[in-house]
Structures
1.
Amino acid sequence: MLLTITNTRIPADDLSYLLHKHPGKIQSVETSAGKAHIFYPEVSREKCTAALLLDIDPVGLVRKAGPKGNDFALEQYVNDRPYVCSSFMSAAIAKAYSSALNGRCKDKPALVDELLPLSAKLSVLPVRGGEKLLKSLFEPLGYTIIATQHPLDPAFPEWGDGRYYTVELSNIITLRQLLSHLYVLIPVCDNDKHYWIGKDEIDKLLEKGGEWLPGHPENELITRRYLKHQRSLANEALEILVKKEDPVDEDGSEAGEDRAAEEVSEVPKPRIHDQRLQTAKDELLMAGAKRVLDLGCGEGKLLKLLLAEKQFELVMGMDVSYRSLEIAKDKLKIDRLPERQRQRIQLIQGSLTYRDKRLEGFDGAALVEVIEHLDEPRLASLERAVFEYAQPGVVVVTTPNEEYNVKFENIQQGQMRHSDHRFEWTRKEFEAWAAGIAVRYNYDVIFKTIGEVDPEVGSLSQMAVFSRPVKNAQGII
């Protein structure tokens, strides 16, 4: 079984630093089932390919396995384990590429978070569920997939195709993310594992998939297959995955931000979070949107405002936190709405850093105080998920203005407004980011202020409104 990983970003041989494997040597590591050999079929400044060849000892495999008591008595001797990418390959990835999988790079540490044009090829991968399953697993993560199905036996074409595929996956992604996806999803495709599953397997799943699995639309299927359909283990893992708390106060506002804003002026002002929500709703109304998304909807405050407007025919809220969605469902009283109203609202669990086909075909979308809760290297994934794949007609994005923090007496220099914020941008930084999106994904963008405005440091919050260029009958903008 063979896994190759190719990098085409110059200098492409940076891949060898990330993998901690010298391109001029053939290296081998022992695994529980045999040996894994690492070598480089191609190394140049323009293109670098690393290969992981797993050589399984079938006799040793049987001796180690011992009697299994399966219905098929010869299964230990008649199986595909020595020839396909299965959980043995996941174990080999963890052993051969442990530093890369854990996000360590001694010589060039900055490379760990670099988005690279990577492609991985698996020869061959057993897929119980066919190409449809492959796409449901990898497409939400942003991959382009080429799957070549192999016949059961080329000498007997009448037998039809088998469940074996040569799979090529391409994505702009970090190497650490690619390896974590492969580590978890290879045995999920196979729907089997070569070893006994215990509670420690939950820890492995959470360690390797904790960043991306909670927001994956197929997280339940992945969890159950990874844990070999052991219901108690799968339920325990799923409960942990959905426990991520929404990083806002109970009423939906950033912790302490409104209290700080009140200290700036003696005159009571509308709550800043309410102003953001109202402004986002007004922008969607003015754009004429009818089908709208609230991305990172939390406990549903914006959803409630949107549902009150007859213009919006369908309102969909998405959040990574299952608990927040349950609270939103309760606060919106969805179960008690008339049938016609209930058909206007949908709540889905998902992550903004992965492609999700459920988000496609909408007129508008709002991301109210969402982006600052992501690590900056992951913003590129959000950009692709929203602006390249979902492509709403209008997108409203709000985020705090870092320059305004000097007006808060209870915020020290360098401190952020909320403990979960990964960054806070100045007006220039936000405008540069938004302008880049507009160029890359063919949007127009304008900037507006929200909340109190200071002549020197700007407004309390800042907003970008992205819209598709208008074309006339001749297709000219």
Note: The radius of gyration is 25 Å.
2.
Amino acid sequence: MSQTVIGIFDNPTDAQKAVSQLVSKGFLQNNIDISAQSSQERAAAFQDKEQDDDSIGGFFKSLFGSDEQTSNKYASVARAHTLVTVHAQTKQEAQQAADVLDEYGALDIDERAAQYSSSGRAGSAVTSTEGAMAIPIIEEELQVGKRVVETGGVRLRSRIIERPVEEHLRLREERVYVERRPVNRPASDQDLAGFKEGMIEVSEHAEVPLVSKEARIVEEVKLSKEVKEREEVIKDTVRKTDVDVEQLKTDDLRDRPANL
């Protein structure tokens, strides 16, 4: 069953971008119509909102049939703006076209029609089937994922510090003393044997400090990680379209024109 998707735009440039996007997604150019009003036509549309017999009014009458309230509302908004019409072959194509038109700025018809003292039901892009009206049921789904964030950490920085140390050490030192004393005795044979030129040398010795350093490892600092898992409950709200079906009684319909 073929479907017609309508988007009404304030800006003709946005409408043209939407058409280009539809073509890039595989919609045939022959199935897309774009109608832009001139400045004079827009001014006339604001002054006369009840042009039921013009081409735009006739288009929406053919689209909505006997639902004059809805067709007049869409026509009153479309006369002053740029109209994009997509002829979709399937329900999926119609929804895809409606999404594209909304993405590029299709008007909220209810809001704009209220400015023209009109009322009714409509969205920014409307889907109409031949012989039936459809309200899209939209439902949000909660998408939950994970990403890694930094929550803290540890930084190790090594540096060299100096401290004074002190050790006590006992050192020995030699001293040679020469002592001369007067003697008055006869020389012995031993004394005479040593009565010749000679030399005696006695060395002095002393202990001095000997200092060296040895580097030793006295402690180690290690880094390690501990991974824990926890379960978290994500609570949020999602929205969906809810359609209430109300059966109209005969008394309610008695004085009303027939609708689709």
Note: The helical segments are 12-24, 39-47, 55-64, 68-78, 91-103, 109-115, 189-193, 250-253.
3.
Amino acid sequence: MTASAQARELLQLAAVAADSKAGEELVALDVSGPLPLTDIFLLVSGNSERNVVAISDAVEDALNEAGVKTLRREGKEQGRWVLLDFGDLVVHVFHQEDRQYYALERLWRDCPVVPFELPHSAVAGQG
């Protein structure tokens, strides 16, 4: 399986929103093969708890404004690892230390990277 066109559209919106709040090391993984409930994971790092919350708020606001409902939100209170579930897209916003510790890229290393565009670069998501 490959990620749906709708999931890729959601990814684009989320990536631009995360980037607008200084999200770092954005990587999108196509998890549609091993996970039947979602298509794409977007992984983003923030450099502080406040930054993690700001990134997650921006992503949630952008997708909600586009008419996409947040199905689940976890971890916002601590600001270390915020999970936002939008159905076809799940966004993980990590504090840099937590991202290294949990190493989701290593866990999902067999999943293909999904490219996306950011305003300041031609193609991102190759992280």
Note: The longest helix spans residues 49-65.
4.
Amino acid sequence: MKIRSLAVMLAGLSVVLGSAIANPAKAQTKNNNTYYCAQLDGNWNTFVNTPRGRVTLINWANKFSETWTPQKRCSTISQRFQNFLDDGNLKFIRTGEINKMPVLCVANARGGACPEDNVLITLKPGTDPEGVLIRLVDFRRSVSGQTLTLSADDAGFYSGGEFYVDMDKFIESVPVNN
């Protein structure tokens, strides 16, 4: 009886491991992170719940336009983060330009493109998207304006002249809220 139970457990484990090997992108989405929009101290924020705790990702302080209020942008973009994660595509974030507008988008691979279907956030014309992306991941930098230093262990890196953020590394290293 014990041997049969062990055989059933091993068979179940091989199915789980086999599906993770056969479809690593989908297996990676099992990281239990959840992106959502909520108010904190009167401001709309995009949060991510991780196994380590809650992370405040973006504070939506400014109105993009009359129709794109902080609440609407927070809700829409938080849902985009979650959809990309659920689809197994939230690996890298990079900058780009779509319809002559600066954007942050999801790239499926290091050095990947920024197609229109992968737009995460559209920024106002004239905004430096690389600066926005660097500020997003530079959580260790103090307000004093110290120089940003990127090392091989950092979530942010350059590839082909474009700045990318490895979302797995970023979420693993960003401080959680108390």
Note: The two ends are 48 Å apart (CA to CA).
